[in-house]
Amino acid sequence: MRSPFPRAVMLAASAFIGTVQAADSTVRFATFNASLNRNALGDLLFDLGATQAGSVDITRPYVTNADTAGLTTQQREVLQAHNVAEIIQRINADVLLVNEFDFDSAGTPGSTSIPSAPHYSSQAAQLFQDNYLSVAHGSGTTGRQISNPVSYSYRHTPATNTGIGSGFDLNNNGFVGGGDDAFGFGSFAGQFGFTIYSKYAIKSVRSFQNFLWKDMPDNLLTDDPTVGANNLASFYSAAEIDVLRLSSKNHVDVVLDVNGTDVHFLTAHPTPPVFDGAEDRNGKRNADEIRFWADYIAGAAYVYDDQGGTGGLAAGSIFVIAGDYNADPNDGDAFQDPIEQLLQHPLVNVTVTPESQGGVLAAVDVNNNGPANATHLTDPKFDTADFNDAAPGNLRVDYVLPSSNVDIVGAGIFWPVEGTADRPLVGEFNTPGLFAGLPSSDHKAVYVDVTIPRPVPVPAALPLFATALLSLRLLRRSV
Q1: Under a CB-based contact definition with an 8 Å cutoff, are residues 198 and 31 in contact?
Q2: DSSP at 313
Q3: Nearest alpha carbon to residue 348 among 289, 406, 412
Q4: Residue 404: which of 298, 318, 294 has the closest Cα?
Q5: Following CA atoms 102, 107, 113, 117 in sequence, which dihedral angle do they give, to the nearest 10 degrees?
Q6: C-alpha span between 133 and 152 (Å, rounded)
Q7: Taking the CA atoms of the chain, what radius of gyration do you get in angstroms?
């Protein structure tokens, strides 16, 4: 039967509906504490330069101490960077945070308290792209399929508090100097920083490197509930409290343009809740560093950034929180389960948790050197870090947490099991002969696939749809 509606009406309505139902984008967000920090100032730049003296045959498998016996220290570091690059290629994230990546200012090693420009890429970040991520890895010799190079057109490397001296004796050992007395722990300025890689354009950046810990309401620095000398207000002097920064590295909101939709990539790396004393200064700082994002996504008014802006996210914003947060939901040494501030936040989507079979098997591996994993409450399939099995054991500490107004359509942890071709990329904890005791890192890459809605250009479509409605009204009058 012939439609009672004029063809013009049908076309206009179809065009409007088509606009409303424009295809969404599936975007893979990932975090990887890649352990690309080095032991001395400038070493990362030197390694990523891929000099002839440091080159290695990446078509060979390096699994045991015997395999690496002929390698120099730098070659072992270069090999580790290549393994990290191959993992990144294999997960092929669209947006990636790399934790523990030493900072440099245009090729000069070190860090600064001056915020990085929105599109600043450190020279190390550029070298890692050019000499590692842009090079195919794997071969028939290693048993791994050749990976495809991955290219990130957009990068941001924020300055970091690590290693920047505070001028105070923050650990109360009677001496001013060293990593413990820096604004964030680091043996040199810039150690343990981070960098962001993206296939989507970066629109803007807010950083919170210089935000003072005391300026967070109800913080654990000045409102510590601990009684006695271990109360942080007693542990630190008034002068120290006045200068202490909340972020041990930085908290950075990178706004991405995902096919016309703004997505806030919220990146950080809170301090480990250990390496301190009975006062638990690192545990309490870790808790408040995590809480910062919980407040930020709720639009907290107290927030101020390095760029002169104030306030948290606007209601309805799309975001993805990513990073090594050094806090397991149940296990480890975190102060009062701080990660629950995000995992139980109504604005955070936790409907899918990344998992791996590698984590399950690692918890019961015959090579474990301690019983810690046997006492853990968190399901090992959710673990993201292969730590010492005596203490603290393997933990879930790396997170990719989208906002609740987007859907998760996939997730995973790159932790191949023993006997698979990709296993040599992650290896086992404390393998002799490898840089830092592992082929790549004690942390595993974590990724989540998110559906990002495309913006609906309603104003442009309204005139057409209005015409369609008017035609329909006239049609009804004529019948």
Answers
A1: no
A2: P
A3: 406
A4: 318
A5: -110
A6: 9
A7: 25
Q: Tell me the per-residue pLDDT of 226-239, one tens digit each, with 9 for 90 and over.
A: 999 999 999 999 99
| Residue 68 neighbours by CB distance under 10 Å | 20
Q: How do residues 362-393 score in pLDDT, each as one tens digit?
A: 999 988 889 999 999 999 999 999 999 999 99
Residue 152 has which token pair? 């990130």
> Is 32:445 a contact under the CB 8 Å cutoff?
yes
The whole-number pLDDT of residue 12 equals 44
- Residue 77 main-chain phi, psi, to 5 deg: -70, -40
By the 10 Å C-beta count (0-12 exposed, 13-18 middle, 19+ buried), 18 is classed as exposed
* pLDDT attached to residue 56: 83
Q: Using 70 as the pLDDT threshold, list the residues of the chain that sit under it.
A: 1-22, 50-53, 140-142, 457-479
Phi, psi of 237 (to 5 degrees): -75, 165
With 0-12 / 13-18 / 19 or more C-beta atoms within 10 angstroms meaning exposed / middle / buried, residue 92 is middle
Domain 23-443 class? alpha beta
Q: Count CB neighbours of 300 within 10 A.
A: 17
Cis peptide before 392, with omega less than 30 degrees from 0?
A: yes
Q: Say if residues 257 and 269 touch (Cβ distance below 8 Å).
A: no
Nearest to 183 by CA among 201, 168, 200: 168
Burial class (CB in 10 A: 0-12, 13-18, 19+), 459: exposed
What Cα–Cα distance (Å) separates residue 388 from each residue in 35, 362, 395, 431? 16, 11, 10, 12
Burial code (b: 16+ CB inside 10 Å, e: under 16) for 112-138 equals: eeebbebebbbbbbbbbbebbbeeebb
Separation of alpha carbons 166 and 153, rounded Å:
36
DSSP code of residue 34: E
* Domain regions of the chain by residue span: 1-22+456-479, 23-443
Cβ within 8 Å of residue 239, ≥6 positions away: 168
Distances (CA, A) of 433 to 66, 68, 72, 84, 343: 8, 6, 10, 17, 38
Query: Side by side, which strands form the sheet with 318-324?
Result: 201-207, 251-258, 261-268, 318-324, 398-402
Q: Which two tokens stand for residue 113?
A: 């308290």
Helical spans, DSSP H, in 52-122: 73-91
As a whole number of angstroms, the distance between CA 346 and CA 54 comes to 49
User: Which tokens in the block code for residue 307?
Assistant: 């760029």
